[in-house]
C-alpha cells in the first residue's frame, strides 16, 4: 500500500492520513524524535533480512504472535512486521522481513549502527498457546519467520511439534536450523526439488495426517498456501490457526484498513488478530482487499527501483 497514505511533516506530531481517515497516534507510537538503534543485521537470503534493534519497552512486553509497526525513516510509510525474537534482558528485538517493495527495501538498506525512526509495539493479540498434543506447524516463504516464535512457544507449552517448511527453492529457505531446534520433527519441501522433498507443503501435510494423529495445525505463509492447508485440515476436522496479513495502516483498530471477514463477522486483523481460525476465514474477500492497492504498490516499486539504479 503506498500512495494514498501520507505522514505529517516533522513538528506536527505523529499523524497518519489516508484518503478517508486521519488519525493521531499520540501515546501509541513513539515520538518522532525517538530513534531505535540497529544492533545487528544479517542477510538470510538474497531478499530476506534479519534486523535486531534496541527497543527495551517492546522487548519487555512482547509475546508470540505480536507485531510492530516500523517506519524506517521520517519520510517512510509504517509497515507491520512480526516480532521474531525479543530479549527482555538486553532489550533487543528481532524482525525478519522480505524485501518486496519500497518500504521493505528502505529498511533493508539500513545498516548496523543506524536507527529506524519508529518502532511501535507490541501490537496485536498474542497467540493462544495451549498444550493440545501434536501440532503441525506449516510455513512457507517468509512465513517461516512469523512461525518461529509461535513454534517455540508451542514447544515450551509441552506440545509435540511437527514442522513442515516450504520454499520455491533451496536458496529461499530460511531459518532451517532454528526451526529444526524448535520442532520434534521437521520436513522440508521445495517446489523444484532442489532441497528436501520435491513438492508443496500440502502434499507433506496430507501424508503426515495419514501417518500420525494431528491435534492442531498452524499455517503461516502466502494466502493461497494457508487456504490450501485449511482445505486439507477441514476434511480431517483438525483445528487450524492462520496468521493474516491484510494491509495495515495504524495497527490499533482505528482506521478499518485491515478488516477481514471471519465466521461471517467483520474483524480487524490488527487488534482481533492477526491469528484466526482458518476454517472460518473468508479467503475470497481477503484476496480482493489485498489486491486493491496493487497499482499504487507497483508504481512505488518502480520508483524505488529507478532511484536505486540512478
Ligand atoms: C501483522 C503482519 C505481520 C507481518 N509480518 C511480516 C514479517 O515478519 N516479515 C515480512 O517479510 N513481512 C511481514 N508482513 C508483510 C509486510 O508488512 C509487507 O511485506 C510490507 O508492508 C510490504 O511493504 P513494501 O512497501 O515493502 O511493499 P509494497 O510494494 O507496498 O507491498 C507489497 C505487498 O505487501 C503488502 N503490504 C504493503 N503495505 C502493507 C501494510 N502497510 N500492511 C500490510 N501489508 C502490506 C501488500 O500485500 C503488498 O502486495 C506482515 C504483515 C502483517 C499485516
Ligand atoms: S490497521 Fe487500522 S484498524 Fe487495523
Which bin fits the share of residues in helices? 25-40%
Provide the β-strand percentage band. Answer: 25-35%
Please state the overall shape, judged from the principal axes of the Cα atoms.
globular
Please state the second-level CATH architecture of the domain at 6-123: Beta Barrel
- Measured between the Cα atoms of the first and last residue, the distance is 24 Å
Would you list the SSEs in sequence order as H and E? EEEEEHEEEHEEEHEHEEHEHEEEHEHH
Report Rg.
19 Å
Structural class: alpha/beta
Relevant terms:
9 helices, binds FE2/S2 (inorganic) cluster, 28% helix, disordered N terminus, 310 residues, globular, 19 strands, Elongation Factor Tu (Ef-tu), domain 3, seven-stranded mixed beta sheet, alpha/beta, binds flavin-adenine dinucleotide, Rossmann fold
What does this structure look like?
Helix content is 28%, strand content 31%. It has 310 residues and is an alpha/beta fold. The strands form 4 sheets. It has a 7-stranded antiparallel β-sheet with strand order 9-4-5-8-7-6-10, sandwiched between helices. Strands 14-13-12-11-15-16-19 form a 7-stranded mixed β-sheet, sandwiched between helices. The chain has a 3-stranded antiparallel β-sheet with strand order 1-2-3, with no helix packed on it. A hairpin with a 4-residue loop joins β7 (79-87) and β8. α5 runs parallel beside α6. The longest helix has 16 residues, at 294-309. Mean pLDDT is 87; it is low at 1-33. It binds flavin-adenine dinucleotide and FE2/S2 (inorganic) cluster. FE2/S2 (inorganic) cluster (FES) binds at residues 248-251, 253-258, 268, 270.
